[in-house]
From TrEMBL:
It comes from Parahaliea aestuarii. Belongs to the HMG-CoA reductase family. CDD domains: HMG-CoA_reductase_classI. Transmembrane segments: none annotated. It holds the Pfam family HMG-CoA_red. GO terms for molecular function: hydroxymethylglutaryl-CoA reductase (NADPH) activity. This is hydroxymethylglutaryl-CoA reductase (NADPH). It comes from the Bacteria.
Length: 391
């Protein structure tokens, strides 16, 4: 018995008619109605490269938080941040953190590194063969770089890391990718580089795979935390004692004590980072702005550090070592996603670092706001008022 296949139009599969045909098919198969799924305002002809079997849309509530004051090298000024979410209280909490940091003078942001990877693996008859291959790779980096960059205008091969294990050598190709996230760009460039290697290496290579999983694409890893995947961006601020007291009803001492207790609890639980809830802000901004939502898996990793200053104020910083964002390509050009990017001045060429700084500052605001709500025992009451737990 064969299952019915989802219908396609070979001549033009990205049209209102093709989408309607699929909705009718699903309605018949699922005995359901797709009335809202079929309500959208953009032209399906813009979707090749973004989705297959286009049938309609899933509408996500969108709210703006802010204004957020950023003191960055790429983002400088006040921004209203689009956040797509179904979690009540989230936009309000981030807005509260944005008010606190705005009155403290703004969040300082710095992009300190930028790299995207593909990580092929080569196998040899023994470990010495792998070692000799690694030496040859180092000697021929310029030629490998030239071969890789024949496939892209904006991608640049920065360096190749080497990791030996057993009789294999894992190569981690690091690229800068301009304003694109760059995973596919790096895959294509690395494939070209590997073909050049296979054609020119004088020794015998037993086996090779384009991905040996040391790029840990769409997975968290300690290697990416240390070496960066995407943008490594740091957001920091010093919060005056009086502001914490007046706006958050807490003190630097209470916030710091909670941070230490939280880090110990996370250590015992085996948590992979010490942030409070960076995935909340990152996921909601990613959905709103057309980022690859699966990249939340890497991007949410955060390194939080706090101090009570000699003056009695509260220094707080968030480092995002693997923030993968794009201002061009992928889903950023879709109708509503582009509008959200444009509302922050973050669409198009030269804007990816600006977007990264805004996202990092947003994460910091959410971390401070939730941390203060827990310390001041307002966490539950705020969810009762605004969230799913309301009576």
């Amino acid at each position: 018995m064969s299952s019915a296949r989802i219908p396609r139009n070979k001549e033009n599969d990205y049209s209102h008619e093709a989408a309607a045909m699929r909705r009718a098919f699903i309605e018949d198969q699922g005995q359901c109605r797709l009335e809202h799924v079929g309500s959208y305002s953009f032209d399906p002809a813009t979707l090749p490269g973004n989705i297959e079997n286009f049938t309609g849309v899933v509408q996500m509530p969108l709210g703006y938080a802010g204004p957020l004051r950023v003191i960055g090298e790429h983002a400088h000024g006040e921004f209203y941040v689009p956040m797509a979410t179904t979690e009540g209280t989230l936009v309000a909490s981030y807005s509260r953190g944005m008010r606190l940091t705005r009155e403290a003078g703004g969040v300082t942001t710095t992009v300190v590194d930028d790299a995207m990877q593909r990580s092929p693996v080569f196998a040899f008859s023994d470990a010495r063969g792998a070692r000799d291959f690694g030496n040859w790779i180092s000697e021929h980096f310029a030629s490998i770089k030239a071969a890789a960059e024949t496939t892209t205008r904006s991608g640049k091969l920065r360096n190749i890391e080497q990791y030996a294990a057993s009789r294999m050598l894992y190569l981690r190709f690091n690229y800068t990718t301009g304003d694109a996230a760059g995973q596919n760009m790096c895959g294509k460039a690395t494939f070209a580089a590997c073909r050049w290697i296979l054609d020119n290496y004088p020794g015998t290579i037993g086996r090779y795979f384009l991905s040996g999983n040391m790029d840990t694409d769409k997975k968290h890893s300690q290697l990416n935390t240390l070496h960066t995947r995407g943008k490594r961006v740091i957001a920091e601020i010093t919060l005056p004692r009086e502001l914490l007291r007046d706006l958050m009803r807490t003190t630097p001492e209470a916030m710091y004590a909670a941070r230490m207790a939280s880090q110990l609890g996370g250590l015992m639980a085996g948590a992979v980072h010490n942030g409070v809830h960076p995935a909340n802000g990152i996921a909601s901004v990613f959905i709103a702005t057309g980022q690859d939502e699966a990249n939340v898996a890497e991007s949410h990793a955060s390194l939080v550090h706090a101090e009570i200053t000699p003056e009695g104020d509260y220094y707080y910083s968030v480092t995002l070592p693997s923030l993968i964002v794009a201002s061009y390509g992928g889903g950023t050009g879709l109708a509503t996603q582009r509008e959200c990017l444009e509302s922050m001045g973050c669409y198009g060429a030269g804007k990816a670092h600006k977007l990264a700084e805004i996202v990092a500052a947003t994460v910091l605001c959410g971390e401070v706001s939730l941390g203060a709500a827990v310390v001041s025992e307002e966490w539950v009451s705020s969810h009762d008022e605004l969230g799913r737990n309301r009576p």
